[in-house]
Amino acid sequence: MSVQWGTFAPDSAPSYRRLQTLGLTVAIRHYNDRSVPGLGGLSFGMPIAWSLLGVWLAEEIGNQVRPLSCANAIEAAVMVQALKERRKRARGHRKLAGVSDTSFKALSGRGAYVTQPYRMGTVEPLLRLGLVVGASQRFNLYRLAPPGERILQNLKAEQNKLRAWATGSSLTPIGRLAPDAPLPAASAKLLERQLRDYGDAHRRRALLDLPEEVLREANMTSAEPPTGIEQAHWNDMRSGVALIQLRKAALDAIAVIEEQLTSSGRAGLTVHQAAEAAGSKLEQTAVLASTMLARDDTSPGQLAHEFARVCRSSAEVVIAELARRDGTVIRLLPNGQVGLGPAGGQLATGMDDEADQEGLGETATVIPELPRIHNLYALKRDLQLSMADH
Asked: Which residues of 271-297 are buried (b: 16+ CB within 10 A; e: fewer)?
């Protein structure tokens, strides 16, 4: 079976982000974490350094500014320079366009940077990889743990620059922290060790030890796992892939209805008309719903099976439920018809400054479709390059 990666990042809608969760966020997050525990949205190593520097800087300046604001400011400062140099992975193209005040005070202010910084993808791995200590996944409560301190030991020059910047000096070049720059080799080696050995690491380690090409060629319809992958781990991966494929099919059906509403200029379609327009997409959705129902569902409240059962209902019932669950691109109107939602008709024109934290960090090249599995392999390659470059 040929499986293609999908990405679920918002587009550049001017007023509303096209995040169509369909009520599946909890279930998809569950399967991502069951496949790669504790990875969060991490797909390359440098965001860990930015976030650790933010926690360090807050302590260094006496907690005058909270760790979250410090980390966001550091990331924004990195991106200001990266955008000028046209470096890869730069974020904030619109938010930071024409910024002239690069003081710490300005860049640590509310709204100075994008609402979905890379930092958000590090909240979970910082704690679950043992790089910080904290009572919960609340960034402002984090303090550096010894492994986190050791990761920063090879960034002393950058720490000195950031300390001076935070206490009133001008921002100086910090190219070593650029988004496409490698981590120092020793830091990359330590992060790889934490991935392999810290906490609930056995599933991460199994995938890290499995060659990428083996997983790419794996048959996701087979109940037999590749060598080195435990059966329960494989079952969760297969269920997660089935759910994401089902969600994509449902979103394809919604897209057809959006196009019909946009091109016709009509305020609404009856549920029957919408179902007729999306007929072939709904057939594919029903097939994938059957696949999901044939897989185990370990998600909270069996949310995946609940959605799959809906998707095997009559076409009119499916359309009404999808419109109710979406509410962003299409929605169920008070008169029972299906109309455009607040982001309806704002068709994708490109990537926004932000990225869905359950989406992909890099160009997708491997299967299965669970984003964190892809991100783990992307991170593995990034750390290997970091270690090879030094």
From this structure: bebbbebbeebbebbbebbebbbebeb
